Amino acid sequence: MTTLVIAEQRQGYLSATVPHLIAAARRFDETVTLLVSGERYQKAVSAVAQLTGLTAIACHSTPAPYSTPEWLAEQLAQRVTAGHWGQVNQIMAAASPFGHAVLPRLAALLDAPLVTNVVAIEDRDNVTRPIHAGTVLATVRLLRRPRLLSIRSSAFATALSLPPQLLWQGERGSDSKERPDLLTADIVVAGGQGVAASGSFALIEALAQQLGAAVGASRSAVDAGVAANDQQIGQTGKIIAPRLYIAVGLSGSLQHLAGVKDAGTIVAINHDPQAPIHAVADFSLVADLFRAVPALIAALQRSAFRPGQGHP
Ligand SMILES: Cc1cc2nc3c(=O)[nH]c(=O)nc-3n(C[C@H](O)[C@H](O)[C@H](O)COP(=O)(O)OP(=O)(O)OC[C@H]3O[C@@H](n4cnc5c(N)ncnc54)[C@H](O)[C@@H]3O)c2cc1C
Question: Quick one: pLDDT at residue 259?
């Protein structure tokens, strides 16, 4: 009996969510089979080999034209049904765009139940997930096997660590600069409609660059076309848990805040003192963002702060 963990990798680098997924899988007290799939997976495999306590590693080469969620789900369904990995009781992936593209398709093919955004595994049959935009936690009882789970990696602490050079470090912003991955970043700077009104996210990207932070957005900023879909934070976007979250020119709607419930320190920059974001912020700056953010960037440039050397 095993728990199958589908690892996300890009260009041979493993997602930082993988050690957290393994920590979650171990809660079931069964063997853990880690599946690394993709066209260039050798680097990821060598990273996996350094993880201890895994009973099996299934490596699977996917030719580039077929490495789609549809193709992967079909391959996995065939192998799970054929007993390729013995009896698979749980199948997990991160609660990320990748996981949420593969798991529903796999659930349909296997006619198996899927629970998304799992934040706790109570015991073999009971898991916890947020509902109503994160205001309530629901315990879901799963009686059928296999069951599929998308896991919020930030909810599962891990003692496993992988060498940073084997992990996928980030993405490129519209300014072509490297950025940390939004899901696992230590610092996130997010912009909302207030920023989008200027027609560009350049200020947010400049502040993020200065802090070595990932860039996030409210749905309004995404709808306005200044931020990408995969930068949206919230109920229908990404759920993040950075140590520092800087919200710029966004109001703090219930749907947006559902994505930052696990953030450490929250800083709000908003010129409306009544904006709901101020009620959840640890530090509030009631100011015009087009004055405050350039001043903050200039102050950071003058200070000794460098990304990766602790918080400002
Ligand atoms: C089913 C559903 C799901 C949703 N999911 C999500 C989701 O996942 N994520 C999400 O973000 N939203 C989501 N939304 C949308 C959500 O309800 C809000 O509409 C959205 O979050 C608002 O974005 P905003 O805060 O950027 O814009 P606004 O609410 O318009 O806020 C803009 C803020 O910027 C401030 N501001 C403006 N100009 C300046 C300035 N010059 N200086 C300083 N401050 C300034 C204003 O005071 C205001 O508070 C969802 C909605 C629904 C119905």
Answer: 92
